[in-house]
UniProtKB/TrEMBL annotation:
<dbReference type="InterPro" id="IPR009045">
    <property type="entry name" value="Zn_M74/Hedgehog-like"/>
</dbReference>
<dbReference type="InterPro" id="IPR003709">
    <property type="entry name" value="VanY-like_core_dom"/>
</dbReference>
<dbReference type="InterPro" id="IPR058193">
    <property type="entry name" value="VanY/YodJ_core_dom"/>
</dbReference>
<keyword id="KW-0121">Carboxypeptidase</keyword>
<dbReference type="Pfam" id="PF02557">
    <property type="entry name" value="VanY"/>
</dbReference>
<feature type="domain" description="D-alanyl-D-alanine carboxypeptidase-like core">
    <location>
        <begin position="105"/>
        <end position="219"/>
    </location>
</feature>
<dbReference type="GO" id="GO:0004180">
    <property type="term" value="F:carboxypeptidase activity"/>
</dbReference>
<protein>
    <submittedName>
        <fullName>M15 family metallopeptidase</fullName>
        <ecNumber>3.4.17.-</ecNumber>
    </submittedName>
</protein>
<keyword id="KW-0378">Hydrolase</keyword>
<keyword id="KW-0645">Protease</keyword>
<dbReference type="InterPro" id="IPR052179">
    <property type="entry name" value="DD-CPase-like"/>
</dbReference>
Amino acid sequence: MKKWVICFFVLLLLGYGYTKLKAGMNDLPNESGLHIEIRNTPDAVTQADDFKIKVSKEMIFQGDLLLVNKDHPVPDGLTPESDVVSLVRNPELIDGFGLLDNTILLSPRLVDKFRTMIKDAAQEGVVHFLISSGYRNEAQQEELHRTKGAKFALPAGYSEHNLGLSMDIGSSQAEMNRAPEGKWLKDHSWKYGFILRYPEDKTEVTGIQFEPWHFRYVGLPHSAIMREKNLVLEQYLDFLKEQKSVSTTIGEDNYEVFYYPVTENRMITVPTQGEYEISGNNQDGVIVTIRK
Ligand SMILES: [Zn+2]
């Protein structure tokens, strides 16, 4: 009986979200199309036909949500260099943006997501994007740290650029804090899974000065929830740990996000419906993201 009442309210909420979304829908999700509902326990969505997957401790250290900062280095054994390519040597990847120099390395997967994003920017007349830095290996990071100083570059292994999921984006017209490219990315990048990693109002949390050029890929719905709740990655991962489960609707996609602590190899339950992705937090657990 009680279950049916809960189901009814869930349906009502979904219906409400859908109506709200329909009212203000365009090609891209917008603020009014984002609905966040917080649940306190992962068991709330467990159903009889769900299946179990094995999570091992190594999974804490893989995925798009890894936290890398002065306290959490890039995990040992992670090899982003196996995925990255030189953009200059792969000119078919360069589409709609310029390069600051010929040393830029990035994974084709990340470039693809970046290109999708700036294609939409171009439709609004924002077209002067430059990539000024992508993946940096340990030697490049060490060199930067030594020559530019600790304020500009973190030591090797502690920079997000060593993770392969970050890029520095500039404009050929002006500095990013004044350029239309910077403003556009600040307002829209969350729709494409990117976050402005070091915002002006979060320097005390990140320990890094405002960097209007540094964007990090975390994927949807994480970038949207972080934007909606004004959280940087450090805070978002803590938030997931506290809530254990968050669900949200973006555009036509419904997402469920779960945090599971991992101290030993264990089994976790995943719904059979929808696609799922698992990422570690580079600390103590994994985040399972399900899209329905
Ligand atoms: Zn950067």
